[in-house]
Amino acid sequence: MKKLIICHLYGNLLNTYGDVGKMREMFYSALEDEDIVGLSIATRADCLPDEVLDLLNEQMNFEYESAYIYKAMSAYTEDLDLDGFTTWLDIQVEEEIMHGEGMRKFLQSVGYKPHYKAINEPKDDYRSILEVLKTALEHEKEVTKKITHISNVSRDEDARVFSFIQWYIDE
């Protein structure tokens, strides 16, 4: 008879917060048994590495700040009656808010209380539409760099964050 092992680790000294290589070795050795078809492992939120969740919280704040930056750009293009650019930038605003909300909901789902920081005043004295577009491109490069960093850190530290953040990479 094939078996699926479900392991809930809730005791004081029981958790999945340990050396990833050792944990992987233990779990894979259990899967070598031909009667075992899979493992389902859960842990407490307080056993997750704070560093990874703190990075995700920082990114959540950066997503909200990004919306603010794009809204200032949108106001500039609207003043120039550049309806197409304004519409595109407003879509970026909505997308950044959606990203921030997705991260907030994920953090709360793992028992982490999101922390909000003050949003810096965005630049609003652009000299040209070209400057707006160059600034937006550089900002998106920074967003990509930060998301990639979270992915790299979480790969070995927190599989749930790693899985979650892949959507932002694939987007």
Structural class: mainly alpha
Q: Assign an overall shape.
A: elongated
How can the largest sheet be summarized? 2 strands, parallel
**Residue share in helices?**
55-70%
Average residue-wise pLDDT: 84
Give unreliable regions as ranges: 8-14
Number of helices: 5
Proportion of beta-strand residues = 5-15%
Q: What would you report as the Rg, rounded to the nearest angstrom?
A: 21 Å
Give the CA-CA distance, first to last residue.
41 Å
- Side by side, the strands of the main sheet go 1-2
Series of secondary-structure elements, N-terminal to C-terminal: EHEHHHH
DSSP strand count: 2
Description:
The protein is mostly helical. The protein contains five helices and two strands, in the order E-H-E-H-H-H-H. Strands 1-2 form a two-stranded parallel sheet. Helix 2 (50-79) packs antiparallel against helix 4. The longest helix has 30 residues, at 50-79. The model is unreliable at 8-14 (pLDDT under 50).
